[in-house]
Amino acid sequence: MYTRYDKSSNILTEDTGAGPTAALWKRFPIQAIIQDPSLGVYFFDDFHDLPAHGDTSGAAVSGALGRYSHYIYTGGAIADGNTTGGVGGVAKFSSDGDNEGAAIGPLVGGFNLATTLGSFLYEARVKSSTITDTKHGFFAGLIAGGLIAAGVPIATDGTLYDTNFIGFHRLEGDGDMLDVVWKADGQTQQSLITDAITLVADTWVKIGILYDKQEDDSHKLTFFKNGVPLTTYGTATQMDAATFPDDIALGLTFAVLNATGSTPGNSSIDWHRAVQLRIT
After folding, report:
1. 94: which strand partners?
2. What is the pTM of this model?
3. Are 259 and 137 in contact (CB under 8 A)?
4. 195 CB-near residues (< 8 Å, 6+ apart)
5. pLDDT bracket for residue 181 (50, 70, 90)
6. Across 235-258, average pLDDT
7. Is the peptide bond prior to 245 cis by the omega test (within 30 degrees of 0)?
8. d(C-alpha 122, C-alpha 45), whole Å
9. Which of 139, 134, 138 shows the shortest CA–CA distance to 261?
10. Residues near 131 by beta carbon (within 8 Å), at least 6 away in sequence
11. Separation CA 172–CA 140 (nearest Å)
């Protein structure tokens, strides 16, 4: 069924292709799960059917948006980002004013990262038009369901909202870097890896999270850039701590919030994907 990720012998070659990193995803029985959901939970969105909001200058908009919950500030937009043609969708998130942006997230959660549950994998392909500081921040990863609103998941000061989440955060004041972060509701945010991934302007990067139940306790969580593991791992002790969001179902999210109204730029998501085994 599941093929263990062997960190010692499977240091992967960087995969900058447009699709999910095959060397990671082949470890999970995706087709079997699609045929028999009792084996696990699988989600993939290529963003070719996300309803767009090209201009919200009249007022903020919120509520259901396709399979997501969403919030778009006055002046914000979620638009078609596939401007060069080709196959597949791209969702571009932007706004025209300070402390404005757009976010999508789960109506309900479907994944639970806990050491008592099955192995899990998340990957997304994202980019930003700018890496200049104090332009905008973004967050990509997982968050508790039904929460997307003004200031969620990114507050107007650029920090992340007090809720359950795990993922990659670009601080508005550090435009060329992604941090690996997580948090449980009411607890102190944990930054496992500061400056984990260096961004390049207008260049796609694939980011990933693997929880491997079969791994030893010192390497339960592995984080990836373009399919290559980062060198700092999350441990079973960290996952079992009160600060980790292991007691609630999470779903996939992407959000952008401006730090300025002057040429703030935009960020885009090409696709995101997740799978978790029901078996433990």
Report:
1. 77
2. 0.95
3. yes
4. 174, 177, 178, 179
5. very high
6. 98
7. no
8. 12
9. 134
10. 175, 176, 199, 200, 201
11. 14
* pLDDT above 70: residue 111: yes
Q: What is the DSSP letter of 219?
A: G
CA–CA distance, 275 with 280 (Å, rounded to integer): 14
Taking the C-alpha atoms of residue 216 and residue 199, their distance in angstroms, rounded to an integer, is 31
94/270 Cα distance (integer angstroms):
15
Tell me which of 257 and 53 has the higher pLDDT.
257
Closest C-alpha among 114, 110, 139, 111 to residue 234: 114
| DSSP reduced 3-state for 14 | coil
Q: What is the 3-state secondary structure (H, E, C) of 128-149?
A: ECCCCCCCEEEEEEEEECCCCE
Pick from 141, 143, 179: nearest CA to 162: 143
Mean pLDDT, rounded, of the chain: 93
pLDDT of 280:
59
| Encoded tokens for 127 | 């980019």
How confident is residue 279, by pLDDT bands cut at 50, 70 and 90?
confident
